């Protein structure tokens, strides 16, 4: 317009007013054409957007201008805005209603990839100016304009709905079960008055910890409490790492024994009954892992807190007697009995199996140890006890066991409770009846369909547990000396000749085996290594380094699993070392870890961060599709997380 005026004035100066008037008229016509073309294009875009949104019959040409939702049409390739309704411009902060602006500049971080993928809705909400929007829309290919793609975007304001949803989730009832781990031991030597006082201090400490959460706490058994609270308070409990675990230790019996608790939290169960079932299962899981820890259970798995201290002794002679009676009944009702341990069987696995073979012989049943081909650490027993004529049917392969399996067969799993670690998973899944005897802590995966289970993480070994059962079910004269040696070898191996993880019941089991004829000199021969293994062990020690008081041997070549475990044990003899980890690559392209501790570092909790498990003083892990260099980075990160977590 300004250019036309200047041109008109110039023509007047040269007295060519006719030409100036003609130029002005032409300019006016061009401007009118551009205005009408822009208006027509905007109307066409509006009609196109409405045709996509509604159908051709309901499109009015102006409905979307006042549609109570932010709508914008833009070029998907360049992001240039072609059209937007009044609600869209208001969303942008009353930005100037000017087509040609870039959508990404007005609405930063707006997700649009889903449009290019042919989807009609964004998988995530878009938050802008503290409001939540759900982006939806369509992409339409233009044959014109070089084949560009136009997109129509609708932004539904779901802020109020999201607030209601968040409040609903935060106010959902959550159930917590609290169990006093050592209640019997605390109360047993006390007078009635002392018991009432101690129980009152337990109640007061737990009630104080639960106060301020707007929940309901009740004791429903002498050593069990139920706490129902809103989900919104769970984060405070987890951030405080369930501080009740530390606070309850201020309650002590006159003897000096301090109380400990196991906490189980149930989330997202099917109603109150489902959540209570989850909470109870989580509390039992915490106790089976040694107590003094918290476990959260939801439909997808477990989450663990605490458990860094020593396991709480919860076994009793009564419990052992009950389990022994159940196992005896199970064996008597079964046909053939199969005994299976973890892959890479060791002396504890084979020793426990030898004890069970003796028990089955007393009860008139055939029993066999299931052993696969490959690496193991039981060669001294295979060439000795299992080479005898009486043990000719006491050893079989997983394939033979599968063929011999009948509807009345019994499979006893020893020295592991994780289904993925057993010698043969198909055999485990096919067995009609199961029993589990193990001293390792439960992990998030465990055998959950056993008819009889004896899981005691406070025990030194599977051999100790089997010896306890044998003492309840048979006389010491009914087990051979070779079998007693085998059971004792497993105990001595896991306790490092009775130097770690030993207790009163460990020595009681060893004493019974001694009466059965076990001899420590013969057992020492079973524990000896060959010259090649000894040299390999000391070669591993040469690669050790110290990181935060933990000795780490990072190897770049595959190793004998047994030798690596022995090297981890050897590293604990270095002054100032609290734990050790040896890891090495495998032929399958992964990395195996073996960890040991003298008791101040819980290596099970440490290696659980890498997908492993075990118990407080001995643990292992297997990582697949990872290099030794990457495994070292992951290990050091796990050590940092463990050490820095209070």
Task: Give an account of the 3D structure.
The protein is α/β, with parallel strands linked by helices and 646 residues long. The chain is 41% helix and 20% strand. It is built from 24 helices and 23 strands. The strands form four sheets. A six-stranded mixed β-sheet has the order 7-8-6-9-10-11. Helix 13 (347-362) runs antiparallel to helix 18 and helix 17 (462-473) packs antiparallel against helix 18 (481-495). It is elongated. It starts with a helix and ends with a helix. The model is unreliable at 54-63 (pLDDT under 50).
Short précis:
This protein is an alpha/beta fold. The chain is elongated and about 130 Å long. It starts with a helix and ends with a helix.
